[in-house]
Design brief:
38% helix, 19 helices, alpha+beta, single chain, Glutamine Phosphoribosylpyrophosphate, subunit 1, domain 1, six-stranded antiparallel beta sheet, 523 residues
Amino acid sequence: MTVPGAVAAGHPETCRAAVDILNAGGNAVDAALAAMAVACIAEPALASLGGGGFLLSAMASGRHAGTRVVHDFFVNTPGQRPPRPDAIDFRPVHAEFGATRQEFHIGRAAIAVPGIVRGLFAAHRDLGRMPIAAVVEPAVRCARDGVPLAPAQADILAIIDAIIGATPAARALFASPDRPGARIGAGERLRWPRLADVLETLAIEGDELFYRGEIARQIVADASAGGATLSLDDFARYRVEHRPPLTRRACGAEILLNPPPASGGVLLALALALIDDRRLAGHGFATAAALDETIAVMAAAQQARLDAGEGGDEEAAALDRLCDPALIALWRRRIAGRPRALRGTTHISVVDGEGNAAALSLSNGEGSAYVVPGTDIMMNNMLGEDDLAPRGFHRWQPATRMTSMMAPTLVTTAAGERIALGSGGSNRIRTAMLQVLVNHLVFGLPLADAIAAPRLHYEADALSIEPGFAEAELARLLAAHPSAVVWPALSMFFGGVHAAARSGAGRFIAAADARRGGAAHAG
């Protein structure tokens, strides 16, 4: 018998893990954590035990009923900056998205203190129901038996080929099992048996193995050899932060968002506050007028980020203040005066039969190309992220939780629908989420259609447009934005929104984004 629930994630195996846990008696948090562990094998370019993330949970049953909390297990900066930035393992590479190109930095000095393992155990202790060994068992099985590489994952690996080919260990990790010297391709089975051993041992010994034991010592020793400043103290001091979600009302719904110091949730809250949903609805779905208003909101939210500061806690606090009604009115006036003119992230959404909801986003950046010997774990490159280093590389505040654009979100509508959703896509997360929420809450599109609809992204005075808009509306849009780039096909550049929901009538709905090879289950 299938247990009622809904799951949406970035890979069929990731989705299956969550469904299996629900069927075995786990709750939404157990299921999301199991899926997170599997994503570290099934979505290898986007997720890793060496990265960080956020889990937003709203519990409706059991001893945790009424709990609404964000487990922040994103990465920390090391306790010291490199004394000689010119003599460290830190170098630029480029990823080719087709219509655009992005520069990333990799190497041992790009590694921030990871949080995934601490987050897995902390969230499980707080809200989980099943034994931790049962939660990680699907990931152990996938790592040991192997997972056929999905076409979307193969495409991502091709995009970051310069990273996974940068070191012998990275090349070995992603080597084809059938074609010597080649990168693993779609349909070939990815097996990481040493990761299976790590997961099994963690389930027995706990997260201290990773943060105070052999794994931490190995990472620190190798990072030090590359001129980085990661220390054993950095690992031992790492803690998961428990935060109340940022709560806003917009588009007729209560929306729970990722709070500061993450900036993605605040920027999304600001954009939702700027949206005039009645006027937008009056324009009609995907009309040039509605699209122009959406672009204006995107531009205002981006400018708000620039005006608020340069990053970190100060930026997030300032952005939070921007949601003050008086400041929202100011931004509305600025919008009214205008003509109506890739980071590696994945997401998991779960709603269970008891009404519990979990939205979990995680990232490894693009990976640092450093693989921890004997573990099959590639560490993150968060210190090499332009988006996360607005002051410049190696100028970060020491021993500080880094900010992130990840924006796991929970929505409750007036009709009683509860939705868990989120997206990958770095600085495109907030614009992808904004458009999906508007499509569903304002224009009334079913979740699957709201996600599948073509998107825009506006940043730094540059407009990118997916294909699929009506020709007449696209012509009007291009007349107002003659320098806009129209992409030839739907693309992962525009994010990957995965949503799971329970309607007010109790029906389960799940929709995953084909842009990132998503998979969904509703039963």
